[in-house]
TrEMBL record:
Protein name: Sulfide:quinone oxidoreductase mitochondrial
A GO MF term: sulfide:quinone oxidoreductase activity
Annotated SUPFAM superfamilies: FAD/NAD(P)-binding domain
Pfam families recorded: Pyr_redox_2
Any one cellular-component term (Gene Ontology): mitochondrion
Leader sequence segment: none
FAD/NAD(P)-binding domain sequence ranges: 45-184
GO BP, sorted A to Z: sulfide oxidation, using sulfide:quinone oxidoreductase
């Protein structure tokens, strides 16, 4: 792909994202004034905002309960493609090709659901309506807000240009356009400084910034370019620069990963937050007003992430911009017929697809119970998981609930410690999860650690 093509693709992708997130006030007013003349209002029992992992899983689980007719449930999402994002680390590691991991979003939506393939402009929870980008309104009995989180490629100065420049060693597994560049740059590097970053603040899949590093390290080791026993005289030097004070948020797994880092001779720059890329120099902020500049030959960047603007600016959001729901029932703290899960929600747990497997059944049960006038008393315990690749062929399967308390699926039944990286977990991550995701999870029949769901 030529640099101009790559630029165009990246720009087009940014444009697609920006439809949802950057509706300029002027554009909104235009839509609104058109709306006053021509807009229509359609009614649905449930409106689901978002057709990602949470949106598809929840919509189909609702539908499968047999209590809804055609058109009772609506899904709103402007995307053309649905991506299996947990697979992008595997793309960066050269284990999958990115085209395999996506499906046309339309093809994943049951015809009994009404699909609005359009952006959402605003929420009006007091009148139980949402307004679409074209000014039409949807009225609802219950609203499920699951549009995910925005990966902000503009959050780091110089990042967009560095990513779209095919000559630069800068890549990111956090985007469709750039996840395969990680593989190309890792394979092309024959010597020099490699830096892997993780920002301060919330990101989805908090383990991915280091998964890609462990795969790269393993590749360079096998190619004779990196000797963990003798890092300073190896052709390649590896640094993990993270905004966090530790390797991972859960102490049990963090201890294991910190040990690996030290054993493998990886430099740790903790509490260092990448703020700028300038040619082959990376600038980090740390401490109070301190800056550190480092030269690099390869850099894998995890951009900062945050709530979509149309959620953040809505009455549904908390201070941080996330949909403000109860930690256990997933019900909005103010509007009792509004619900959220997944990356867009305020739930204080790690944002992953695995978390959706536990959140979706709780949300669905509580919506159905409250539709029948019953108490919404099903509770989510914060379950989430991070299948953490530590090398080719090995995965540490972190599973935990609120408070960073381990909740291991196989520990219970097989009596094993999931902090020990294993080959069986690698096959779960590489082969089983992508398969079960498209065949069952998005269709509403996969319950994660609970196995297949029965109606
Ligand atoms: C899971 O169900 C799932 O979804 C398909 C994942 O992929 C994104 C996961 O990473 C994990 C951990 C689960 C949980 C399931 C089991 C069997 C532990």
């Amino acid at each position: 792909m030529s640099s101009s093509q790559l630029l165009v693709t990246t720009a087009a992708c940014a444009a697609r994202r920006s439809i949802l997130t950057h509706l300029a006030p002027a554009a909104v007013r235009t839509f609104a004034s058109v709306a006053s003349v021509t807009s229509t209002t359609r009614s649905h029992k449930v409106v689901v905002v978002g057709g990602g992992s949470a949106g598809l899983t929840i919509s189909h689980q609702l539908l499968r309960k047999g209590e809804f007719s055609e058109g009772d449930i609506a899904v709103v999402d402007p995307a053309e493609w649905h991506h299996y994002q947990p697979g992008w680390t595997l793309v960066g590691g050269g284990l999958k090709n990115k085209e395999q991991l996506r499906r046309p979003l339309k093809s994943l939506i049951d015809p009994k659901l009404r699909f609005y393939n359009t952006e959402l402009a605003s929420f009006s929870p007091d009148s139980n309506t949402v307004t679409l980008g074209n000014g039409d309104k949807l009225a609802y009995e219950h609203l499920v807000v699951v549009p995910g989180i925005k990966v902000d490629f503009n959050s780091i100065k110089g990042l967009q240009d560095a990513l779209s420049n095919p000559e630069s060693g800068v890549s990111s597994i956090y985007g469709y356009d750039t996840c395969d560049k990680a593989d190309r740059t890792i394979k092309a590097l024959k010597g020099g400084q490699a830096i892997f970053t993780q920002p301060m603040g919330v990101v989805k899949c908090a383990g991915a910034p280091q998964k890609i590093m462990w795969l790269a390290l393993d590749h360079w080791k096998k190619s004779g370019l990196y000797d963990p026993a003798n890092p300073s005289s190896s052709p390649i030097h590896i640094t993990f620069a993270t905004g966090l004070p530790v390797m991972f948020g859960v102490p049990k797994y963090s201890a294991v990963l910190e040990k690996l880092r030290q054993e493998r001779g990886v430099e740790g720059l903790f509490a260092h937050d990448l703020v700028e890329i300038n040619g082959n120099e990376a600038v980090f902020s740390h401490g109070e007003n301190q800056k550190l500049a480092r030269k690099f030959d390869l850099m894998h960047v995890t951009p900062k992430m945050g709530a979509h603007a149309f959620v953040k600016s809505s009455p549904l959001a908390n201070e941080a911009g996330f949909v403000d729901v109860d930690e256990e029932t997933l019900r909005h703290k103010k509007w009792k017929n509004v619900w959220s899960a997944g990356d867009a929600s305020s739930l204080p747990t790690s944002k992953t697809a695995a978390a959706i497997t536990a959140q979706a059944p709780v949300l669905v049960k509580n919506v159905l119970r409250s539709m029948k006038g019953k108490e919404a008393d099903e509770e989510y315990d914060g379950y989430t998981s991070c299948p953490l690749l530590t090398q080719y062929g090995k995965v540490l399967l972190a599973e935990f609930k609120y408070g960073g308390v381990p909740k291991e699926t196989f520990g219970k039944t097989l009596g094993i410690d999931q902090a020990v990286p294993r080959r069986a977990f690698y096959h779960l991550k590489k082969d089983f999860f992508p398969w079960v995701y498209y065949k069952y999870m998005v269709k509403g029949t996969w319950g994660g650690p609970k196995g297949w769901l029965r109606d």
